[in-house]
Design brief:
Number of strands: 4
Oligomer: single chain
Structural class: mainly beta
Length: 50
């Protein structure tokens, strides 16, 4: 949703990202990272995510 902030946790690589708004970038490379499985958590404020 526009204006929202999310924490994105890639369950395959254990990487974590903070995404803002509706549009974000994901890259897949069959030799390096052929897939992602994301867990999204919405930012509640401060350092808290739901």
């Amino acid at each position: 949703m526009e204006g929202e902030t999310y924490q994105v946790h890639d369950l395959l690589s254990d990487a974590r990202y903070v995404w803002h708004g509706r549009r974000n970038y994901v890259e897949l490379d069959p030799e390096i990272q052929p897939a992602h499985i994301f867990r999204l958590r919405r930012w509640l404020g401060g350092d808290r995510f739901a």
